[in-house]
Specification:
Radius of gyration of chain A: 16 Å
Distance between the termini of chain B: 33 Å
Helix content of chain A: 25-40%
Number of strands of chain A: 9
CATH architecture of chain A: 3-Layer(aba) Sandwich
Strand order of the largest sheet of chain A: 1-8-7-4-3-2
Number of domains of chain A: 1
Shape of chain A: globular
CATH topology of chain A: Rossmann fold
Order of helices and strands of chain B: HEHEHEEEHHEEHEEEEEH
Oligomer: heterodimer
Helix content of chain B: 25-40%
Shape of chain B: globular
Structural class of chain B: alpha/beta
Radius of gyration of chain B: 20 Å
């Protein structure tokens, strides 16, 4: 294990995780809203927002899939030490982390079943930038429409058409995070 | 004052993570009941253990918490839950709806419109709207999967056949975003219109039944009805006897053995605020003189 893996966790886990969760809950219940996450410093190449999200939600009961550059020893060790989450292949993942291109094809991820649509994956997509512009979002959580810089629209259209099945996404860049639940309708503008 | 023998907000971190994941799934699939591993809480089932667990998972140290039971801030259930979080989370508490960031409620939605940034947490006894029509969980789960909600309309129709109108007065079933039929918890149907398009996030926790569900802000919620028997948000046809409000939901209070009764706002904060502003009802005195 790399010694760096032992550092960078929550200094005050109950309060750090509580504040982080409220921001995450805000982001997912108001798609398009960009929130700031702080409290943890994960090793490169993981963004701070993605690191805080993992510490807040992942544990030994949630298999994590690392895609692309995030699948490196430093990060494997860090996630294993701080969360105890098993690292698995895409099909078994509760959480999957990586850049959008690295996560392809997204059809590999669990979308739940008709009886249990909650048995689905959550994708944590590392982005080069995150802004309130680009694709138009509408649906639950949004008054009218909101804008968010999604990596594409086609995949999210398809995902929404599966509703109530589907995966949910968080987009992260630096300390910023935005949510996109499966319930959101996406339109290119 | 926080009691340091407890973790922040009572629950251990592993439990909070599990509840938080369930809440996020509930937000992603509005109206769908997400199973969660409900814990024993230091209060009996039926006293809001589901709501308490959801609140515990959502609270941050900066929150201002309000707890109501049938609209009242000063009843046993509300007082004990408020004290519980004062002790275990050290959060500030309030009775003023506008000041609260998190409101835990048993069976009412506050009269004052909620705002963005507020979270309303409902205590839910029976989360499954189809349960009294179909006792088997395996069947109700299938009915939700197949959107097979005909039975619910049969129930409402039988109300009309028997009573001439839909007699269901509380826990009135709703349809969320045209997909899941949901039990809004035993709120009076008077409150049903407030479920829809609310700027606040609404979370529902059922402790004994181990389910969490949610309505994100600005979610379309429709009370089930028929074209020729449309939904009607009813209340007692009176004004509040203390504050004179005509638009609030009323409790009927029997005042003596001679059959006298009074009607008062079920929302105590709403009623108090109105009386402090000088409104006086049939039996009320101004707030300064007591009521």
């Amino acid at each position: 294990m790399t010694p760096d893996a032992l550092t960078g966790g929550f200094p005050d886990a109950p309060r750090n995780a509580a504040r982080a969760f409220r921001a995450i809950l805000d982001a997912l219940s108001r798609p398009g809203e960009i929130v700031t996450l702080s409290g943890a410093t994960p090793p490169a190449p993981l963004s701070q927002a993605a690191g805080v999200l993992v510490l807040t939600l992942a544990d030994s009961t949630t298999p994590v899939h690392l895609a692309g550059a995030t699948d490196c020893p430093a990060l494997r060790d860090w996630i294993t030490f701080h969360t105890g989450a098993p690292l698995v292949g895409a099909a078994d993942a509760a959480f999957a982390i990586g850049r959008w291109d690295d996560l392809q094809p997204v059809s590999r991820f669990a979308v739940g079943t008709q009886d249990y649509p909650d048995r689905s994956a959550t994708l944590i997509v590392e982005m080069p930038g995150l802004a309130a512009s680009g694709s138009a979002l509408s649906g639950p959580g949004i008054a009218g429409t909101a804008l968010l810089s999604l990596p594409e629209t086609e995949a999210f259209l398809l995902n929404n058409s599966l509703f109530p099945l589907g995966y949910d996404c968080f987009f992260t860049q630096g300390d910023s995070l935005a949510g996109l639940p499966r319930s959101t309708q996406v339109r290119a503008v | 004052m926080t009691d340091h023998s407890y973790n922040f907000a009572y629950l251990d971190e592993q439990t909070k993570r599990m509840i938080r994941r369930a809440i996020l799934k509930a937000v992603a699939v509005p109206g769908y009941q997400v199973p969660f591993a409900s814990r024993e809480m230091p209060m009996p089932y039926g006293w809001g253990t589901g709501g308490v667990q959801v609140t515990a998972a959502c609270l941050v140290p900066e929150d201002v918490l309000k707890v109501i039971d049938q609209g009242a801030d000063d009843t046993t259930n509300a007082v004990s839950i408020r004290k519980f979080f004062q002790r275990t989370a050290g959060v500030a508490t309030t009775v003023a709806t506008a000041e609260a960031t998190v409101i835990q409620t048993r069976h009412r939605i506050p009269e004052q419109p909620l705002t963005a940034g507020q979270i309303l947490v409902y205590q839910v006894p029976i989360p499954e709207p189809l349960r009294f029509l179909e006792p088997r969980e395996t069947e109700t789960r299938k009915m939700h999967a197949l959107e097979e909600y005909g039975l619910m309309h049969v129930k409402l129709y039988e109300d009309i056949a028997r009573h001439g109108s839909i007699a269901t007065a509380y826990a009135y079933p709703v349809r969320v975003e045209g997909r899941y039929v949901m039990d809004p918890s035993p709120i009076p149907k008077f409150d049903n219109p407030k479920l829809s398009d609310s700027p606040a996030l609404q979370l529902f926790g059922a402790g004994r039944e181990q389910r969490i569900y949610a309505l994100p802000p600005f979610t379309r919620v429709v009370s089930l009805d028929f074209e020729d028997h449309s939904f009607h948000a009813s209340k007692a046809p009176h004004d509040c006897d203390l504050c004179g409000a005509s638009e609030s939901y009323l409790d009927e209070v029997i005042t003596d053995d001679a059959g006298n009764r009074m009607f008062v706002c079920s929302d105590t904060d709403f009623c108090r605020t109105r009386r402090e502003a000088g409104h006086v009802g049939r039996l009320g005195k101004t707030a300064g003189g007591g009521a």
